[in-house]
Amino acid sequence: MADVSAVLMGLLELCADAEKQLANITMGLPLSPAADSARSARHALSLIATARPPAFITTIAKEVHRHTALAANTQSQQNMHTTALARAKGEILRVIEILIEKMPTDVVDLLVEVMDIIMYCLEGSLVKKKGLQECFPAICRFYMVSYYERNHRIAVGARHGSVALYDIRTGKCQTIHGHKGPITAVAFAPDGRYLATYSNTDSHISFWQMNTSLLGSIGMLNSAPQLRCVKTYQVPPVQPASPGSHNALRLARLIWTSNRNVILMAHDGKEHRFMV
Known about the structure:
42% of the residues lie in helices and 22% in strands. A 4-stranded antiparallel β-sheet has the order 1-2-3-4, with helices on one face. The chain has a 4-stranded antiparallel β-sheet with strand order 5-6-7-8, with no helix packed on it. A 3-stranded antiparallel β-sheet has the order 9-10-11, with no helix packed on it. The protein is α+β, with helices and mostly antiparallel strands. It folds into 2 domains: 1-121, no CATH class; 137-275, Methylamine Dehydrogenase, Chain H (7 Propeller), CATH 2.130.10.10. The radius of gyration is 20 Å and the shape is elongated. Helix 1 packs antiparallel against helix 3 (33-51) and helix 4 crosses helix 9 (111-121).
């Protein structure tokens, strides 16, 4: 894994300024050596990522965690912004977008790690201003991702049945264990008071009450759980249209019709209605 990391970081270093290098190229003129290596590194990065998506995602996620921990412990932040990882945020997002497009089933297996990477690469203030859909629409295609604009929180359902709750303002993430199988869909209620989570494997839909106390929302009570389960219903499992991993991503989604009512909409159009 250390080798993979060294290779990826080396390539990111080479294509960190690719946008700048390649933007100044006039059609028909030969590439400068720097632009040539930036383009080759960018191509190599895409090839490695699509050949081994799990290795790419887990390696970059580990680097992100390492850098975040370093930044938290370092008094001087300057050197953090000059690292290849920090300079190549645009390139990392470009590769993640390719993986979502071409290999969504690989991405969904590591959705929390992917969101960790996206959160590192996106500017928090920009997400607050424009929303996740505007900043990185590709990730919003997954039914296991929901963003609530008013309190800037993102919920991500994971393969092992837990939900990761990100607070964009504080940059913190909390994990709640909610289901016995992979989470198929998550969605915030329109007023943000509840989060609905559904797992087709354990055939349950759960409703979680958000902690909206002032202290909780400011983030002072980091130890206080942000969510508590208030209701769980059993649901008949949804059968995929045909056997195949791709269909699992589009099995069912959650649609809130009011602050207290939600529809579980299956891919075949069948609806199950629930009330908190």
